[in-house]
């Protein structure tokens, strides 16, 4: 019996993952990800692994009658029609929490870079302007208020670094205060709140850590920016579309907030003339928060092995839609 057929759309985050996938499957790789092309390639496959900006829509799923599993190459699943896959009984996999340290470090880096004016000082020093040290302020983090929107794995790692590394006053917003998260917050010395407005009104640095879904899309908008202190900064290492970017641009352009650190955009990559890229009070990076060498190796191999588990009839270790396993026909792991 031959290996199961898997369609790999774009590269995985590390060669180790691609090697592990090829060891357990007959892999077809494509870097072209328009929907008609994917429908054509998917017709005989049992598994699909992809990374953004490629998308798996219901058309692609319907074009693959033998499809048993879909997996993102990392954490996010917003580029996969999870609801339709679930209705078809197809597990959708990912690698949650694997990137938590890398992404948390990136969020903290952006906070530090903004508070110390690192990029602007670098630009001025490159011009030979040493006197810039007298014109641009820098700030200590100790005693400042950090507000986290969300309190999942990445936010918890971020909170740990801000609270214990920099002695910041950390509050995290959650939809409801669950016992497990309450216990973690108490252990870290973090205050939980269900009032999002409180986070935006009181924080010196606001860091976003929420997934992209119908509830969160464009939820960070003009109303919330209006609550922020003029000295406050917004950090986004989550997903670009959770922010109404036109509203953020207005707030930054008009000086209603001090600045922003952005690792994510909507869409990605952003256009070269994207308004946010032109602002002097914005630091931007190309969605690299969770793509350190160490994280990439772990993420890609985790994804590959998880996909192979399903194709061998075993229950997946990490799944974004566990309800798809109702009536699961494979053998338990």
TrEMBL record:
InterPro entries: D-2-hydroxyacid_DH, D-isomer_2_OHA_DH_cat_dom, D-isomer_DH_NAD-bd, NAD(P)-bd_dom_sf. Residues 20-317 form the D-isomer specific 2-hydroxyacid dehydrogenase catalytic domain. GO terms for molecular function: NAD binding; oxidoreductase activity, acting on the CH-OH group of donors, NAD or NADP as acceptor. Keywords: NAD, Oxidoreductase. SUPFAM superfamilies: Formate/glycerate dehydrogenase catalytic domain-like, NAD(P)-binding Rossmann-fold domains. Residues 108-289 form the D-isomer specific 2-hydroxyacid dehydrogenase NAD-binding domain. PANTHER family: D-ISOMER SPECIFIC 2-HYDROXYACID DEHYDROGENASE FAMILY PROTEIN (AFU_ORTHOLOGUE AFUA_6G10090). Belongs to the D-isomer specific 2-hydroxyacid dehydrogenase family. This is D-3-phosphoglycerate dehydrogenase. It comes from Paenibacillus methanolicus.
């Amino acid at each position: 019996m031959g290996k199961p057929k898997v369609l790999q759309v774009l590269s995985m985050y590390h060669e180790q993952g691609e090697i592990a996938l090829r060891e357990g499957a007959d892999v077809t790789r494509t870097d072209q990800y328009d929907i008609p092309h994917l429908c054509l390639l998917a017709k005989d496959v049992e598994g699909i692994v992809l990374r953004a900006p490629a998308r798996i829509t219901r058309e692609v799923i319907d074009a693959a009658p033998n499809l048993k599993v879909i997996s993102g190459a990392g954490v996010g699943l917003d580029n996969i029609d999870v609801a339709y896959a679930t209705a078809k009984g197809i597990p959708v996999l990912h690698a949650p929490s694997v990137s938590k340290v890398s992404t948390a470090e990136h969020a903290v880096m952006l906070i530090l870079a903004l508070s110390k004016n690192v990029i602007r000082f670098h630009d001025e020093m490159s011009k030979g302007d040493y006197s810039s040290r007298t014109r641009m302020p820098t700030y200590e983090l100790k005693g400042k208020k950090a507000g986290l929107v969300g309190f999942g794995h990445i936010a918890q790692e971020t909170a740990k670094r801000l609270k214990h590394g920099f002695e910041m006053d950390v509050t995290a917003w959650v939809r409801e205060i669950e016992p497990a998260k309450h216990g973690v917050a108490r252990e870290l010395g973090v205050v939980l709140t269900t009032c999002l407005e409180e986070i935006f009104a009181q924080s010196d640095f606001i860091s976003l850590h929420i997934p992209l879904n119908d509830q969160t899309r464009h939820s960070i908008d003009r109303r919330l920016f209006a609550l922020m202190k003029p000295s406050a900064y917004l950090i986004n290492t989550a997903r670009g579309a959770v922010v109404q970017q036109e509203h953020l641009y207005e707030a930054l352009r008009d000086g209603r907030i001090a600045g922003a650190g952005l690792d994510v955009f909507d869409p990605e990559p952003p256009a070269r003339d994207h308004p946010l890229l032109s602002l002097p009070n914005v630091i931007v990076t190309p969605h690299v928060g969770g793509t350190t060498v160490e994280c990439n190796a772990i993420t890609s191999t985790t994804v590959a092995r998880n996909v192979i588990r399903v194709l061998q009839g075993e229950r997946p270790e990490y799944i974004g839609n566990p309800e798809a396993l109702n009536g699961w026909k494979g053998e338990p792991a």
